[in-house]
């Protein structure tokens, strides 16, 4: 298996289950998708993907429809996606994806977390190059063979296709999202969920005490309502 498989396994076991802001994040994704491409999912591929993710997260249909309706209101806040970069203690690179309606607030908050936890907030581009920006799709495994599908989707940008207990996962470069989404839809393959991730090119192993230092900063950042995702170069401990 490749880096995407190992990354997914570590993240799933350690962090994703602990993050309790899924519906809030999906709500923001809906607003950004509607503001960008309109409220009709048939004509808005980004909104279509968000609705799939909402379904996968068991977000009530009424909540989704309400969020779409609210997003069409011109008075609804527009969220801007902002990327923050920096270093946690012990040389661990941190990449933070945010969606904010108040940039000054978000900048001040993120800076304070780095300062309080002995980290260093970096400048634009200081650590982003250490991560591969990828897209991913989860589809049902019934009736499909992951190895055959990988061969078929290589021409559309797929780099890694593998099974886990919840289905088949497809990973590709960030800019292949639309091409693969369209191909899966053309094949009438149900997309259970999709998204984007930043996979560290290299990771660093730390001692238990050092891990605790880094975790303190990561947890502080993840608690912020403006934060959508946090990525880092610390080696994940699968047994944690």
**Low-pLDDT runs:** 13-20
Which percent bin holds the helix content? Answer: 40-55%
Largest sheet: 4 strands, antiparallel
Average of pLDDT: 91
Number of alpha- plus pi-helical segments: 8
Structural class category:
alpha+beta
Q: Count every beta strand, where a strand is a DSSP E run of 2 or more residues.
A: 8
The rounded Rg comes to: 18 Å
Q: What order do the helices and strands follow?
A: HHHHEEHEEHEEHEHE
Distance between the amino and carboxyl termini: 21 Å
Shape: globular
Approximate strand percentage: 15-25%
Family: Belongs to the TACO1 family.
Protein name: Probable transcriptional regulatory protein AAGV33_15840
Organism: Flavobacterium magnesitis
Domain TACO1/YebC-like N-terminal: 4-73
Task: Characterise this structure.
There is one protein chain. The protein has 240 residues and is α+β, with helices and mostly antiparallel strands. Helices cover 41% and strands 23% of the residues. A 4-stranded antiparallel β-sheet has the order 3-1-2-8. A 4-stranded antiparallel β-sheet has the order 5-6-4-7, sandwiched between helices. Helix 2 (22-37) runs antiparallel to helix 3 and helix 2 crosses helix 4 (61-71). The two termini are 21 Å apart. Mean pLDDT is 91; it is low at 13-20. One of its GO terms (molecular function) is DNA binding. This is Probable transcriptional regulatory protein AAGV33_15840. It is found in: Cytoplasm.
């Amino acid at each position: 298996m490749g880096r995407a498989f190992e990354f997914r396994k570590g993240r799933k076991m350690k962090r994703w289950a602990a993050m309790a802001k899924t519906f809030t994040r999906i709500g923001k994704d809906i607003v950004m998708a509607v503001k960008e491409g309109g409220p009709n999912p048939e004509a808005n591929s980004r909104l279509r993907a968000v609705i799939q993710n909402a379904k996968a997260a068991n977000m009530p249909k009424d909540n989704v429809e309400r969020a779409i309706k609210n997003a069409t209101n011109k008075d609804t806040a527009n969220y801007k996606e902002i990327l923050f970069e920096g270093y946690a203690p012990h040389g661990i690179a941190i990449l933070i994806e945010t969606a904010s309606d108040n940039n000054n607030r978000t900048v001040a908050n993120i800076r304070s977390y780095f300062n309080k936890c002995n980290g260093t907030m970096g400048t634009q581009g200081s650590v982003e190059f250490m991560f591969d920006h990828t897209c991913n799709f989860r589809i049902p495994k019934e009736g499909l063979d992951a190895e055959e599908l990988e061969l078929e989707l290589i021409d559309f940008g797929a780099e890694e296709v593998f099974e886990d207990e919840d289905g088949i996962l497809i990973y590709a470069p960030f800019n292949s999202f639309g091409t693969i989404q369209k191909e899966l839809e053309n094949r009438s393959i149900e997309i259970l969920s999709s998204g984007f991730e930043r996979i560290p090119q290299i990771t660093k192993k730390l001692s238990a005490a050092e891990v605790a230092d880094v975790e303190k900063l990561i947890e502080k950042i993840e608690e912020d309502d403006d934060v959508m995702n946090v990525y880092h170069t610390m080696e994940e401990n699968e047994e944690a």
